[in-house]
Design a protein that fits this description.
Structural class: alpha+beta
Radius of gyration: 51 Å
Strand order of the largest sheet: 1-8-7-3-4
Helix content: 25-40%
Number of helices: 11
Oligomer: single chain
CATH topology of the domain at 6-120: Immunoglobulin-like
CATH superfamily of the domain at 6-120: Immunoglobulins
Number of strands: 12
CATH class of the domain at 6-120: Mainly Beta
Shape: flat
Largest sheet: 5 strands, mixed
Strand content: 15-25%
Distance between the termini: 106 Å
């Protein structure tokens, strides 16, 4: 029996600690949780065989959130691990739900498991903390706020609430509090020429007029004839679109959008008028004006164009009499070998030279010429001999 008790104690101590709650959190916070692993033989703190893993469950349902924990301060501690989970809506967390982090660790080949439970926005029993029942949906007095504050003096949130309430009480004098009471009871303000009553001649009338205006403007946008007449379109909503387009065009023309077409156009017109006026002043008689293609200049230009020898020096040739090929002219002709049977005069000359001075193989039936690599065939011609007559076929 003693041995059994010792074994059960060791099994309880090995692996990770047992489950416990770690509090309530707000959405989008990061929850940090911890676990410790122990030796199965001695119960002493020791590192797990591998980093413990964990899975997150929402009200008993796996959330497909899983990861490994990180060893904590490995140089000073043994078997201490921590993990973190971001409690975001994107990760599937919701207010009012309960969650469990199931941790699995293996120590000495033995698997152990522990839980860490928490909530998102857990409900709070205010009556339990302040010792008195609260009626209604809201806190109705500063005494209740004071009671909450006294119940938990370390709460930063409660301190802020109390400060706001105290400040509100200070700011709301008796007169100002009366204004709020009047608004709450729908009592018309008196003593002012602009006072409005909550009756047929006051706010109710304004509400009715506003409804009529909205109905009329809505009818305008749904009127086929009006939309077509004003905007050339029967598409609902064309009014706003057409107004936007028109405003954009006006902004461009007037310069409101940075481009002033009116000013730019006027500047161009002014420049043209200035140049035209200057030409008229300076040139006098346009028939004899300098710097222009007058009738005399045009006639001379036409005569030059009609003369075939006028522009030999610049390459406008129609008569090549007296010309000859330069001494090195033939050397400028490319000697690139054709890929097959020659198709023009240049290739014919090149192929003829290659037939006799590059590699060519003639068998009893075929004459083959080759490219510069000596292996790629370029042309082939059949060879046949009948008696003393040898026939060479066309190249292919």
């Amino acid at each position: 029996m003693r041995r059994l008790i010792v074994m059960l104690w060791m099994l309880w101590m090995c692996g990770v600690c047992q489950g416990y709650g770690i509090g309530s959190y707000d959405i989008d916070r990061v929850v940090t949780f911890y676990c410790n692993t122990h030796s199965i033989a001695t119960g002493a703190a020791t590192d797990a065989d591998a980093a413990p893993t964990y899975r997150v469950y929402e009200d008993g349902t796996y959330m497909t959130l899983t990861s490994s924990m990180t060893i904590m301060d490995s140089s000073n501690t043994d078997g201490a691990y921590y993990g973190q989970v971001t409690l975001s809506a994107a990760n599937g967390f919701e207010y009012g739900k309960s969650y469990a982090i199931e941790i699995i660790a293996i120590v000495g080949g033995v698997t152990s498991q522990a839980s860490r439970e928490f909530q998102i926005g857990a409900s709070v029993n205010v009556e339990y903390w302040i010792g008195t029942a609260i009626t209604g949906a809201l806190i109705t007095s500063s005494d209740q706020v004071d009671a909450i504050w006294d119940a938990d003096v370390n709460s930063v949130e409660l301190a802020a609430i109390k400060a706001y309430v105290d400040d509100l009480e200070t700011r709301l004098s008796a007169a100002r509090a009366g204004y709020l009471d009047a608004l709450n009871g729908h009592i018309a303000q008196t003593g002012d020429s602009y006072a409005l009553a909550n009756g047929a001649s006051g706010f109710v009338a304004i509400k009715g007029d506003t409804a009529s205006v909205l109905a009329d403007t809505g009818a305008m946008d749904t009127s086929t004839e009006l939309r077509t007449l004003l905007y050339g379109s029967d598409t609902p909503g064309a009014t706003a679109a057409a107004q936007t387009t028109a405003q954009n065009d006006l902004d461009i023309i007037t310069g409101a959008s940075g481009v002033n077409l009116l000013a730019a156009t006027q500047a161009s017109i002014d420049a043209i008028e200035g140049d035209t006026g200057e030409l008229q002043t300076n040139q006098g008689n346009w028939l004899t004006a300098t710097g222009f293609a007058t009738s005399i200049a045009l006639a001379t230009a036409q005569a030059d164009l009609d003369d075939p020898n006028q522009y030999k020096a610049t390459g406008f040739l129609t008569d090549k009499a007296g010309f000859s090929l330069a001494a090195g002219g033939l050397d400028a002709i490319p000697i690139t070998a054709p890929a097959g049977v020659a198709s023009d005069f240049r290739e014919m000359i090149v192929q003829l030279w290659r037939r006799f001075f590059e590699k060519a193989v003639m068998t009893a039936t075929t004459l083959t010429t080759y490219a510069d690599d000596g292996a790629t065939p370029i042309t082939a011609q059949t060879i046949s001999t009948v008696g003393s007559t040898q026939t060479q076929g066309a190249a292919e």
